[in-house]
Amino acid sequence: MRTSLAYIGLGSNLATPRRQVATALDELDTLPLCRVTAASRLYASRPVGPQDQPDFVNAVAALETALSPLALLDQLQALEQRHRRRRERRWGPRTLDLDILLFDATTVVRPRLKVPHPEMHRRAFVLRPLREIDPHLTLHGQPLGRWLDGLDDDVTPLS
């Protein structure tokens, strides 16, 4: 069975965010045809968008999977729903947010999914934990550190 390597961004700022992210990291390993191969520490960051919400807890996981990108997205959204994720406003507070950041070297452009994640190069809370688990990874041909150099890096390790 052919497998792919996907990088998943995790975030939460509601209902005990540290526990939400830690639990979700464990649950990723139980998804069908998936196995977590690495996970970053937890990080704290200010919210993107509306600032009238709590800070976020973030992490990144490397996931070996035999699922297609869209099938993986379906599994991730089902996991968000089990964590009672509600989509009330863009960039609003959430119990759990799971994003496919990268999927092998594949580019996906679909209404439901864009890979590489179109905003990840602008987000230190994604790039720092991603670089932690794969320091040699590049994005659009550039090392992750190069992308981080131009960002306001207000991301703090929690563990």
Low-confidence stretches: none
State the secondary-structure class: alpha+beta
Please give the number of β-strands.
10
The global form is globular
Structure description:
With 159 residues, the protein is of the alpha+beta class. It has 4 helices and 10 strands. The strands form 3 sheets. Strands 1, 2, 3, 4, 5 and 10 form a 6-stranded antiparallel beta sheet that branches. It has a two-stranded antiparallel sheet with strand order 6-7. A hairpin with a 2-residue loop joins strand 8 and strand 9 (142-143). The longest helix is centred in the middle third of the chain and has 14 residues, at 69-82.
SSE inventory with pairings:
Layout: E1 4-12, H1 17-28, E2 34-39, E3 43-45, E4 56-65, H2 69-82, E5 97-103, E6 108-109, E7 114-115, H3 124-133, E8 138-139, E9 142-143, H4 144-149, E10 156-157
Antiparallel strand pairs: 1-4, 1-5, 2-4, 3-4, 3-10, 6-7, 8-9
EC number: 2.7.6.3
Domain 7,8-dihydro-6-hydroxymethylpterin-pyrophosphokinase: 90-101
InterPro entries: Hppk, Hppk_sf
Features:
two-stranded antiparallel sheet; about 160 residues; six-stranded antiparallel beta sheet; about 30% strand; 10 strands; Hppk; Hppk_sf; kinase; alpha+beta
Compact summary:
This protein is 26% helix and 28% strand. It has 4 helices and 10 strands; from the N terminus they run βαβββαβββαββαβ. The longest helix has 14 residues, at 69-82.
